[in-house]
Amino acid sequence: MAPPTPFDAAHAARYDDQFRPLAPLRDALHLVTQLALNEAPERARVLCVGAGTGAEVLQLAPVFPGWRFVAVDTSGPMLERCRARLAEAGLESRCVLHEGTVDTLPAELGPFDAATAVLVSQFLVDPGERRRFFQRIAERLRPGAPLLFADLAADSLDGELMALWQRAWRHAGASAEAVENMAASVGRSVAIVAPREVEALVAAGGFDEPVRVFQTVFIHGWLARRTASGLAAS
Ligand SMILES: C[S@@+](CC[C@H](N)C(=O)[O-])C[C@H]1O[C@@H](n2cnc3c(N)ncnc32)[C@H](O)[C@@H]1O
Question: CB–CB of 86/151 below 8 Å?
Fold first, then answer.
């Protein structure tokens, strides 16, 4: 079965519309992101990992006119769409787009005063890879700098939460087949693990214990800070 979220050209073309009926959930997360990061300096450098079509940059850039952004994403088509949306909003001069991972990001683009990773690490189903993902972000941040990250998470996949999640997909117009594929992808191409497990991986990657600041159904959001020493737990 093809993975349901390949972020190829066809997916990138429909990405911004596919969950539009759920926009109030996304908007709430964006507002929390803005509030959580607003302590960053007036001329902050902000790293947006898994920036996709630019949602976080488009939310933050108009509110914080002195901030500059580096948007990192492994998908060329998602970044193309991001570039077009930034240009439309007149924001492209404040944002560098990097196709690849944080590992391949040129060092001179950092260090960063704040970072986001919204709905990205859940695609790393191997816990070691997921910890390293956060470690790479920590390495690019100044000590004590904030990271706002969000991922799907749940203590249990049975019962009310999964039923509600499937209803949310149907509300967004997903077909019965798409809902079924989504449920089947859990554990294969998308990790939905307990919030405490996610927090432990992030802390092991070089952050202080993350604080949960958001939840709607499976989507959890956390604020974490790079450890003051800059060192990851062994
Ligand atoms: C669900 S989208 C989220 C996009 C955006 N943050 C948003 O909330 O709309 C996940 C994005 O993460 C990207 N991605 C997946 N793994 C990645 C990695 N290891 N490094 C950078 N980007 C990654 C995908 O290509 C995709 O654009």
Answer: no
Which residue ranges have their beta carbon within 6 Å of ligand 1? 7, 49-52, 55-56, 72-75, 78, 101, 118-120, 123, 133
Average pLDDT by consecutive 10-residue portion of the chain (234 residues)? 68 92 95 97 98 98 98 98 98 97 96 98 96 98 98 90 92 92 87 96 98 96 91 54
148 in Cβ contact with 207 (< 8 Å): no
Residue where the block lists tokens 């816990």: 127
The single residue listed with the structure tokens 């996949």 is 157
Which structure tokens are listed for 7? 């972020």
Structural domains present in the chain: 9-225 (3.40.50.150)
pTM of the model: 0.95
- Nearest alpha carbon, ligand 1 atom 13: 50
